[in-house]
């Protein structure tokens, strides 16, 4: 590559979600990602302590940089603290205390590796998955505009609104405890509250803004997952045109991928069916401190190359137009 031309991969980090299930040895997993052209890595919640035995020497030698880790880190097999759990908003105080301990642990690993952030699924409104499953069934059957969809959506929203309030209160209190403990230890990493892909999961951007406002300057931010946000908009919960402007100042990081129907983690510009829809995220991606590709395992190296080069070029045009 001509040294005068910016390397498009320098703008992004890349999540191990793409290949973590293919590798028992951490170094092999990271070498495959390095082979794509990335040097900065997000270690996701499926990375195990065994993986880390061969990844840590790569970090220590400066061969790679860790941009972020995804809570719970390293991997836990406890279903009470899996990626789809009540987590920091759990109604049981003892479970919340355990959730706090696990988040402190994830932040300690992030700090040890020189990462800037921990990405967090903070919890759910405790209404069960049935509304989300029914709404998605109706959507896939082409009934998005039907009365059946509208009725299910209204009932879901009423239940969600009621259940979200105490969960968000508990999340805020748990995050305050975590931030206080990290501050005492001199650990300075951002905590990113990730937007999710199911109707009962928290937080929506407005809910994240509410939690952040209640933490009075603590290092807690919004982490936007573009594919998840597209799904939630298609189901009627988000307005990404509005949200990506209104809450941009709260965004620390982005998980970058696109969605076909309700199937996410595809390569932007390769698997994108609605380019203008995806490009509503470009200003937020440009402004985000961390820009992390988070792709499904069957995205090929060539698809990833096309996506990265196209997105980097589109961001450069945007920044040049803004005089950046």
TrEMBL record:
Domain Xylose isomerase-like TIM barrel: 31-265
UniProt xrefs under InterPro entries: IolE/XylAMocC-like, Xyl_isomerase-like_sf, Xyl_isomerase-like_TIM-brl
Record-level Gene Ontology MF annotations: isomerase activity
SUPFAM superfamilies cross-referenced by the UniProt entry: Xylose isomerase-like
Keyword Isomerase: yes
Alphabetical UniProt keywords: Isomerase
The protein's name: Xylose isomerase domain protein TIM barrel
